[in-house]
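Could you join me in thinking about how sequence relates to backbone shape in a protein? We need material for that, and I hope you will provide a protein of your own picking. Once you have written the record down, we can walk along the chain together:

…
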Amino acid sequence: MSAPETHEDAPGSDLGWYMGGIWFYFISSGIQGVMFPWIITIVLHETSTRVGIAQMMTMLPMLIFTLFGGALADRVDLRQHLMRLQMIQTVPPIALAIIIYTGHLSYEVMLGFGVLLGVVGAYVMPTRDAMLTRVAMASLKGNIQRGVALSMSGQFLGQVGGFLIGSFAWLFGAPVLFVTQSLLLLGAVFTTSKLSPAPPSNFGRPQTSQLTAIKEGLVVIWKSERLRPVIIMMFMSGILFMGVFMVLFPIMVRDVYHGSSLEIGIINMCFFGGIGISSFTLSRLKPIRRQGRAMMLAMCTGSSVMVVMHFGFPIYVVDFLALCWGLAGGVSMTQSRAVVQEFAEPHMRARLIAAFQLGSMGGGPIGAVMTGYVIAYLGPLDAVLVPVALMVVLWLSIFFFTPLWKLEAMPK
């Protein structure tokens, strides 16, 4: 006998508490999104290659642990598991604040900080997204696309708030902001505790090892004509675009525009604000039917933005371009996540979500290191043209050799 999947007895307030947790968590994440590159690039004044390596180390745990995080999330009460993980995440920022305050900051310390948060984050992401489906079933009458769009709008607009706070690092000091990050994570723990219980959906099914569970999820994805092209596209886009965002923007701010944490924060706010705005807009509209076409057209915008960035316009133009890129990115990211959420069976939802996240984030470490070396060889402005050329090849390959362009939303 299986546990109920929809949790129809769950109160409608679950959506409010879930979104509250999203806001607390991603405001904290936004602070880190400014502080980490600011310390590595501006405070420690590392080279582009070492900036790329540092950013790679923050994302590398996604490659190693995300699938294990998804397999574990399918076996536990999601609410309790998410609370424990978020509580663990409060510790590294406090420790780093103490290290900075006592004058022991170093490149190696920052690498360790990034790896620790990355490991726990690899378990948090599939758990939180699997919880979203439960909440959408109970509070949004099963409208998964709207649930994903609302979640992403809260995620990225929350990060904008964090970027705004982090951009004043030069004024408040790093220790104060890292303590603030931990307090916000405690707020996420509190709001998560208010959600309805979310016991595992595989109740009554024979238990397998985590490696077997992971293999089952990967086999489902590889055989699926819906999921396979989506994850391939997101993985390759991570290689080509994520490195630009995480490595090239901070280097460009320092070496081309001679800025600091404020300029890094503003670019981040524009990019993630664009994602949040488009995600929220999609949550108010009817679900998109031609999901594949929407994703592929949105991907073209990132390439167009980078071509214009190559000409070295004033930084306020770069901010505007980042906003446009974010608006298109919100469409692509919302639809790709919705495809996975709609397709996944309840008993293996977290595993498929984890595999999607591995695909979408897993290209990031490769892209970060590659971008660092390309910048060292070509300079920041010429380096943006390399991923543009590769994206053209990727886009045409997906168009001609996969069914993604014709992919449509699954009927309810």
